[in-house]
Amino acid sequence: MVWLFTSKTPSSSDNSSIASSTLDAMEHARSSAEEMTAAAAATPSSSSLVKLASIPASLMPFLTAAAVFGVSTAAVIFYRTRLRRIPSVAYLTPNMLQGRRVLKGKVTSVGDSDNFRFYHTPGGIWTGWGWLRHVPIGTKELKNQTLHVRLAGVDAPEATSLTDPSSLELAFGDLEQGAHFGMPAQPFSQESLAWLRSQLNGQTVLVKPYTKDRYDRVVSMVWYPRALPFLPKKNANVEVLKVGYAQIYRQAGSEYGGMLQQFEALEAEAKKHKLGIWSQKKVVSAAEHKKQHLRGGG
């Protein structure tokens, strides 16, 4: 029988030839890859080609106008949302409430145990406050230029408005305090007021507004600096509960900023150690005190 195909074992010379051919092919492939890489680096990308493409002169005025309009609009929005000063509660928009905004400013006076007057200084030192621009100190200059801030979620003892009319800030038209004229003070009201003044008066604070109450006060969370400025700020709402100079405000529409559980733990701890108002045998809330002495109080 005659076989059409025969097999032959490669000789050593054939093996050398094959190995040489394989090495030549690998070297050729490597050289080709290097050439392709160099060519790709030298060829502009699609984005570069777009940049290099010439823009028709007729479109330049429209593109310039669009750019100017965009930059101007962004600047106006940034100013209105971050750099415009809010002189009074009338300037607060719904967008600035519900804990959506944090305001920086200075406490100009503390007229009650759980509220104070706040002068908004947007931008802080970066916009010149404290070295180029200064917070007014006179009653006339401050009139209608401050926000009346109420600590959210807490209720401090009521102070009398008869013995200390200066604390009412009548020059600013505090409606609630005027309505409370002649109401007897609660125990620890003066201690509570003195404590809040010592913590906040004259300080630069952060205020997070949540809502406005019926007296046009801005119900807020408030943070103030510690003795060492590089440490985290203290929360005034937390601290007044911690020292026992206030209790949780539990009337309808109360705002706690998501901190009710923490408030309850702090109040329980103050009760346990009989701090401040909790050292009394019977504690009457400020809301109950007003109901007892004022028609329609609450």
TrEMBL record:
Gene3D superfamilies: 2.40.50.90
Organism whose genome encodes this protein: Modicella reniformis
Family recorded in the similarity comment: Belongs to the LCL3 family.
Keywords: Calcium, Endonuclease, Hydrolase, Membrane, Nuclease, Transmembrane, Transmembrane helix
Segments traversing the membrane: 59-79
Cited Pfam families: SNase (PF00565)
Keyword Transmembrane among UniProt keywords: yes
GO molecular function: endonuclease activity; hydrolase activity
Record protein name field: Endonuclease lcl3
Domain called TNase-like: residue spans: 101-280
PROSITE patterns according to UniProt: TNASE_3
